[in-house]
Specification:
Helices cover 62% and strands 13% of the residues. By secondary structure, it is α+β, with helices and mostly antiparallel strands. The chain folds into 2 domains: 3-35 and 164-259, no CATH class; 38-163, Alpha-Beta Plaits. Strands 1, 2, 3, 4 and 5 form a 5-stranded antiparallel β-sheet that branches. Strand 2 and strand 3 form a beta hairpin. Helix 1 (3-34) runs antiparallel to helix 6 (166-191).
Length: 260
């Protein structure tokens, strides 16, 4: 297929891709507005060896994984719940908590999510305070040269919105909708792949020059064929494929929002 033929397809059916993409983006927007907002509070803990010793630094890196394990325990989260006076169980707390360690900079990151920004802040802040105090008590029983100090890098100041990400969801929905629209165009072109539409198509198929053409029997029928670019017997199939594509595009956009 020549580049000109591709361009003709884009001119004739490009609106299908655009329309399905718009429908999917609107569907993603609608779902994003329905989904309850969720906020994320983030706080970092820094682990600092008492002296610049390679062995103590290695021990600190190895202990980071153990610190994460202790922070994500029911015992630790229950202490945080009691301190912040939160109305939740440790299971709810842990379900909305993410803790990760970074050995490259000896840090631990705590992330707490909630539909209430203040609750998210209290979850992360209280848990960090509880763990910091526990490490302080542990250090009090160790030799000063062997201590590993764990302190907050900074208190929580902002609790940004974590989801839904409306702009991202709409963009992703539009992309998936465009893909579905492209599939619809491909399918419609496949249905017409054996139809000779122009004199050039006839010449290309039979290898001889076309000297004349039989005029259409009805101007109304000719107008209908020019408008849709499809024979009359394909019109119902075109509408069915188009409607199914719209539904699929909208569904993909909505599903993507749920996954994000």
């Amino acid at each position: 297929m020549e580049l000109r033929e591709y361009w003709n397809i884009v001119r004739k059916r490009g609106w299908i891709v655009l329309l399905v993409a718009v429908v999917a983006a609107v569907a993603a927007l609608g779902v994003s507005l329905i989904i309850p907002e969720k906020y994320k509070a983030t706080i970092q803990l820094s682990a600092n060896p008492a002296r610049p010793d390679w062995g103590l630094s290695q021990a600190t890196q190895d202990l980071l994984r153990n610190y994460v394990l202790n922070i994500k325990s029911h015992t630790m989260t229950q202490k945080a719940i009691d301190r912040a006076q939160l109305d939740m169980s440790t299971y709810d707390f842990l379900a909305n908590l993410d803790v990760s360690a970074d050995a490259s900079n000896l840090s631990i990151t705590l992330e707490a999510e909630s539909h209430d920004p203040e609750e998210a802040r209290l979850m992360a802040q209280a848990l960090a305070d509880v763990f910091e105090e526990e490490r302080r008590q542990w250090n009090a029983e160790q030799d000063k040269r062997d201590r590993i100090y764990v302190e907050k890098v900074d208190d929580i100041r902002d609790v940004p919105l974590a989801s839904p990400k409306i702009k991202l969801n709409m963009a992703a929905g539009a992309v998936f909708g465009a893909i579905v629209g492209g599939i619809i165009v491909f399918f419609l072109e496949w249905l017409q792949s054996d139809i000779l539409r122009t004199a050039a198509d006839v010449e290309k198929a039979v290898g001889v020059t076309v000297l004349g053409a039989i005029p259409l029997g009805s101007d109304v029928k000719a107008g209908g064929q020019k408008k849709w670019g499809l024979p009359a017997w394909i019109e119902p199939g075109f509408l069915l494929v188009f409607l199914v594509g719209l539904v699929i595009g909208a569904g993909l956009g909505a599903l993507l929002v749920g996954l994000l």
